[in-house]
Specification:
Layout (H helix, E strand, L loop, with lengths): L1 H25 L19 E6 L5 E5 L5 E2 L5 H9 L9 E3 L2 H9 L13 E3 H9 L4 H11 L5 H18 L19 E2 L1 H11 L3 H7 L3 E2 L2 E3 L5 E3 L3 E2 L4 H4 L3 E9 L3 E10 L2 E10 L2 H17 L1
Antiparallel strand pairs: 1-2, 1-13, 3-6, 4-5, 7-10, 8-9, 11-12, 12-13
Helix pairs in contact: 2-5, 2-6, 3-5, 4-5, 5-6
Length: 299
């Protein structure tokens, strides 16, 4: 009799334990609402993040305030080149003295150290543009793909194409007056517009390949027909080495622009893409972008 009672008690206890376990598993007993990810505080004056697949905004801070963009301008430079009809990436461009003079005249602006007289392919110029942020490469591309009988006319034409492309993409708060971000008073965009621009550019497979490359060594053709192996170009984007899943896109900086970064990363099939403008220094720019990507993935 005692054994039977004990058995009944044991069965009841087991049933209760199973029920409790099931309730715990479903969260019925401990169902505190999940904490929403807290929007981060960033030092940058402007920031924006979106889901690249849906275009949904995930974070905004002065997202539509126009600011100087520094070398993030070169995203548009690359996109205009890549949108050229019948583009031949292996066509060669002879490096002119004007390109190197331009670097010197602009306080030794960031450059790819292109050598006057060398023949460099369009493909190589795109790497020189986006990795070391070469203003000389940007000048070469603008001269190559603009229209006109003079270099000045061709550059003006190319910048016109940049603005036409911005209009076509619906970037209402964007305007360019330079091919590289060394502006003349009217070179600006916003975190939202730059993010949309980068998202459009990332649809191009060549662009994606270039901006996720950490290091690239170009072999150019010298004046005498020989081969010159250039010093490796290293990507200025620190996220490629520090953030898991980072796939681009472009840094920028300048006296007006502060420190800027257009960034993108993919994790578990989800891509977030965004921009910080006017951060305080290189390290803070990187920290700002990291915070925004983490937040974007948590949303």
């Amino acid at each position: 009799m005692i054994t039977a009672i004990q058995g009944t008690r044991l069965r009841r206890a087991a049933a209760a334990a199973l029920t409790t376990g099931a309730m715990l598993a479903t969260g019925a007993l401990t169902a505190a609402p999940a904490q929403a990810a807290t929007a981060p505080s960033i030092a940058a004056k402007g920031g924006y993040v979106m889901n690249n697949a849906t275009g949904k905004s995930l974070y905004t801070k002065a997202a539509d305030t126009r600011r100087s963009t520094g070398s993030t301008t070169k995203i548009m430079t690359a996109l205009v080149v890549l949108k050229q009809p019948k583009l031949n990436l292996d066509s060669k461009v002879t490096i002119q003295k004007a390109y190197s003079d331009y670097i010197v005249d602009n306080n030794w602006a960031s450059n790819a150290k292109l050598i006057v007289g060398d023949k460099v392919t369009v493909r190589q110029l795109l790497y020189g543009l986006m990795l070391p942020s070469g203003c000389d490469a940007a000048y070469a591309l603008a001269d190559k793909f603009g229209s006109g009988s003079t270099r000045a006319a061709r550059v003006k034409s190319f910048i016109g194409k940049m603005n036409t492309t911005a209009k076509d993409l619906g970037l209402k708060n964007t305007h360019f007056d330079s091919f590289d971000g060394i502006g003349h008073g009217a070179n600006y965009s916003t975190p939202r517009d730059l993010t949309k621009l980068a998202s459009s550019a990332m649809k191009n497979s060549m662009f994606r390949t270039v901006v996720k490359t950490k290091k690239y060594t170009a072999k150019t053709t010298t004046k005498s027909g020989g081969t010159r192996t250039m010093a490796p170009w290293e990507n200025t984007n620190p996220l490629l080495s520090s953030y898991s899943g980072a796939i681009g896109v472009k840094t920028g900086s300048g006296p007006e622009a502060g420190f800027c970064l257009v960034f993108a990363a993919t994790r578990n099939g989800k891509t977030v893409i965004g921009t910080v403008l006017a951060s305080t220094d290189k390290n803070t720019r990187k920290t700002d972008a990291t915070k925004l990507m983490n937040y974007g993935f948590a949303k």
